[in-house]
Design brief:
75% of the residues lie in helices and 0% in strands. With 123 residues, it is mainly alpha-helical. The chain folds into 2 domains: 3-59; 67-98. The protein is rod-shaped. The model has no long low-confidence stretch (mean pLDDT 75).
């Protein structure tokens, strides 16, 4: 919306004209649109200012409305599935390491015994 007009309340006829002009201007090519809005500005400057503001907003890229809702939902589902897969993988690896702990402790105990009981080579 045009910042100059945010504080004022316009009539329903004003907004009807804005909607009509907006849709008509969007149907035109860029060159024709600029010329048409320039001509209309002489008699309907407030309406044209609103239409130009709406067109700028409409043509901005990256709007959340540019992609369908199912696409956002699919991306969210994929993210959740990947997060869950990673979580399960970490849980599995943690459990696997925990199950190896007794074996590793046994190996280290045996190695420690060998280190302590081996005769030193002092020549």
């Amino acid at each position: 919306m045009n910042p100059q007009s945010e504080d004022r309340v316009e009539s329903p006829e004003f907004w009807d004209r804005v909607v009509q002009l907006f849709h008509f201007a969007l149907a035109l090519g860029l060159t024709e649109r600029v010329a048409y809005l320039r001509d209309a500005k002489g008699t309907q400057s407030g309406v044209v200012a609103e239409v130009e503001s709406l067109i700028r907003e409409h043509e901005q890229t990256g709007s959340f409305l540019d992609s369908p809702a199912y696409q956002a939902a699919l991306e969210a589902a994929n993210h959740a599935r990947i997060s869950r897969t990673l979580q399960v993988s970490v849980e599995y690896r943690t459990a696997a390491l925990a199950s190896l702990r007794p074996s590793l402790e046994s190996i280290f105990t045996t190695l420690r015994w060998f280190v302590v009981t081996l005769p030193s080579s002092s020549t």
